[in-house]
Specification:
130 residues; alpha+beta; Pnp Oxidase, Chain A; 3 helices; 7 strands
């Protein structure tokens, strides 16, 4: 499996275009929990902003395995690794700024946290991963 460092120029562009993705985590029954998310990739780290206490946050706190997958037409990319929850205000502010650059300024949310995914596996369509 490839690492995040193997993204091609097209792959790096793909993860900055305004596409939604899915986040897959392990649910309480051991099955997959898949939800639509916006995410950013910066300095080799995937960040997803969300509200504290959501099912995806509880899932990550119980089982760190997670994957983000993005599809646009024939192009696709999947980034998997271990996730953690960041509650530090500076980390949250950084993730919000990154999100605003890729998508739009999110609404104010005092319960916001960051799902921080450290990639260890990357798969994608031809031309996105070298």
């Amino acid at each position: 499996m490839a690492s995040i460092d193997t993204l091609t120029d097209d792959g790096r562009r793909f993860v900055t275009d305004s596409h939604l993705a899915t986040l897959s985590t392990i649910g309480p029954d051991g099955g997959l929990h898949v939800v639509a998310v916006g995410y950013t990739l910066d300095d080799g780290i995937v960040r997803i902003i969300t509200s504290d206490g959501t099912q995806k946050v509880r899932n990550v706190e119980r089982d760190a395995r997670a994957s983000v997958a993005q599809v646009s037409g024939p192009q696709w990319l999947s980034i998997a690794g271990e996730a953690t929850i960041e509650r530090d205000p500076d980390a949250v502010a950084h993730a919000v700024a990154l999100y605003a650059q890729r998508y739009r300024q999110p609404r104010v949310n005092p319960r916001r946290v960051v799902i921080r995914l450290a990639p260890d596996r990357v798969m994608g369509s031809a031309g996105l991963v070298g």
